[in-house]
């Protein structure tokens, strides 16, 4: 799988991860800041944030991301990093997410 295919697969998987309190996946919520495979395509770094720094589901969401991404064929290592810069805001959501949440 080339790098572009890997990134597309990662996004597809991230769209299956939900914050238990919000009925929209974390990718469309704008919580994923970086998806970066290494040149060989066997390691992956993901930077993500949360809708609030004190989110009670933080550990659950991060572990869900890690477990789901680790099943991608060819990946030997997945690093999921929790970051808070830039701070998340509603403007980072996709139009689909805003529509789902009644914001459009």
Notes on the structure:
With 104 residues, this protein is of the alpha+beta class. It has one domain: GMP Synthetase, Chain A, domain 3, CATH 3.30.300.130. It has a 3-stranded mixed sheet with strand order 1-2-3, covered by helices on one side. The longest helix has 13 residues. The radius of gyration is 14 Å and the shape is globular. The N and C termini lie far apart (37 Å). The mean pLDDT is 95.
Topology readout:
Layout: H1 3-14, E1 32-37, E2 43-48, H2 58-70, E3 77-82, H3 95-100
Parallel strand pairs: 2-3
Antiparallel strand pairs: 1-2
Q: State the CATH architecture.
A: 2-Layer Sandwich
* Average pLDDT: 95
Shape: globular
* Domain module tally: 1
Short description:
With 104 residues, the chain is of the alpha+beta class. It is 30% helix and 17% strand.
List keywords for this structure.
104 residues; alpha+beta; GMP Synthetase, Chain A, domain 3; 3-stranded mixed sheet; 3 helices; 30% helix
């Amino acid at each position: 799988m080339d790098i572009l295919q890997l990134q597309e697969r990662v996004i597809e998987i991230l769209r299956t991860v939900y914050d238990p309190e919000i009925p929209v996946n974390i990718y469309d919520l704008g919580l994923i800041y970086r998806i970066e495979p290494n040149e060989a395509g066997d390691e992956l770094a993901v930077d993500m944030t949360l809708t609030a720094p004190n989110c009670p589901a933080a550990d659950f969401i991060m572990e869900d991301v890690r477990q789901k991404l680790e099943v991608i064929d060819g990946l030997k290592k997945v690093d999921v990093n929790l970051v808070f810069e830039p701070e998340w805001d509603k403007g980072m959501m996709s139009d689909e997410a805003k529509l789902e949440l009644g914001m459009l």
